[in-house]
Description:
The protein has helices at 38-51, 72-87, 100-108, 123-132, 158-175, 193-201, 203-207, 221-227, 236-248, 259-273, and strands at 3-5, 10-12, 17-23, 55-59, 93-96, 113-116, 136-139, 181-184, 214-215, 253-256.
Amino acid sequence: MFDLHLPSQTLRLDPPIVMGVVNVTPDSFSDGGRFRDPDLAVAHGLSLAAQGAAIVDVGGESTRPGAEPVGVEEELRRVLRVIDGLVARHIVVSVDTRHAPVAQRALDHGASIINDISGLRDPAMRSLAARAGVPVVIMHMPNDDPATMQQFARYGDVVADVVGALRRQIATAQAAGVEQIIVDPGIGFGKTTAHNLALIRRLDEIAALGRPVMVGVSRKRFIGQITGDDEPSGRLAGTLAANLAAVARGAHIIRVHEVAPHVHALRMWRALNE
Length: 274
């Protein structure tokens, strides 16, 4: 089974763990604007950890479809105080960024994991990850621009294509000296509802890459399209169902907005599968 070796501790991924989301943005699709104040964001992160999140993921740039890019200095202004506040309380923090300067400063301030939606496309990010020796999430996205990614939602066999792309990204990262690699199929990133469902149904093929698998489906549009919940905040039940299906097929980390319901659902799932 997989372990994540962090600077201050080791995280076991058996049983699967929950990563809680803290968006320090004005425009994230689900909770944009709620936690722009650093003190509120820190309090929210502490609450997620108290509910059972093993990792708190802090992001300062929205990557929803059509999102506008954020400058590095603004992204740093948004996330560093939040990271400081969480690390001071011994919370394991990942930084959700595709920019190497932001990742470097976040690590300097005590973050332990880099969550890169661009999949370490940037050589500077690969070099940083290799030097730091921290775990890195490599996510699949068909291009490197969230604003246009849905225009690239074209695949032959989406699962085979994503597996092949992740395999190449893993090889490129390894060649640069990156050792601790987590893979994420990128649900909702340049994918249609049909693509997202296929990736969850066949997640075992992604797990067969031999790396820990992270899945982020929380509150996403495809869940609303299936369940009829127009508001992201109303998609908890669909999110729980999708995440339990992912765990049953090999997911090790589930990235969510509502931590406590997922912690409880995972406990029940484990009890039923003992």
